[in-house]
Write a structure and sequence with these properties.
By secondary structure, this protein is α+β, with helices and mostly antiparallel strands. Helix content is 45%, strand content 20%. Residues 6-165 form the MmyB-like transcription regulator ligand binding domain.
Length: 166
């Protein structure tokens, strides 16, 4: 993504503190996040690599029933980026590291699942418990390698929990 466009997206995220949204780049590095997203889960802090966190961190909610689908979403995003940039050394290093250190990643990579841009996910927050959230992924333009992700409560209880975090 061009720096002016990324800067605009980051300013937009900063101006919406109560809405859970992040932007990530083609490596799945979080480049911007709202206050609500950073409160929602530590993985959404700017500078965090979502794939490394999800597959290599012991703080991931692998016990939640939708873990396999979340894992497939991440592997699908990485696979899509690899198809566009097969010679990118940094990207190949990321894939190699995940393959060598996470059987969960290797299994998701092997499944080769396609994932929709909209899905419902479960997120456990230490203060409010489990929330069912609708997740929306939106590429930021045809020339951009960045993606915007937003979450909204999938039911009244989850919407109230999410709102209480802002």
């Amino acid at each position: 993504m061009s720096e002016p466009l990324r800067d605009t997206v980051i300013r937009m995220l900063e101006s919406q503190p109560a809405v859970a949204m992040i932007a990530y780049d083609r490596y799945l590095d979080v480049v911007g996040a709202t206050v609500a997203a950073k409160t929602l889960h530590p993985v959404y802090a700017p500078g965090t690599n979502i794939a490394r966190y999800m597959y290599l961190s012991d703080r991931t909610n692998r016990d939640l029933p939708d873990w396999t689908r979340k894992s497939d979403v991440i592997a699908s995003a990485l696979r899509s980026s690899l198809a566009r940039h097969p010679e990118d050394a940094r990207f190949l290093g990321l894939i190699g590291d995940l393959s060598a250190n996470s059987t969960l990643f290797a299994e998701s990579w092997a499944r080769n699942s396609d994932v929709p841009d909209e899905l419902t996910v479960l997120i456990r927050h230490p203060g409010v418990g489990i929330m069912r959230l609708d997740q929306f992924r939106m590429p930021l333009g045809s020339d951009s390698e960045d993606t915007l992700v937003a979450w909204a409560g999938a039911d009244r209880d989850s919407a109230a929990k999410l709102a209480s975090l802002a």
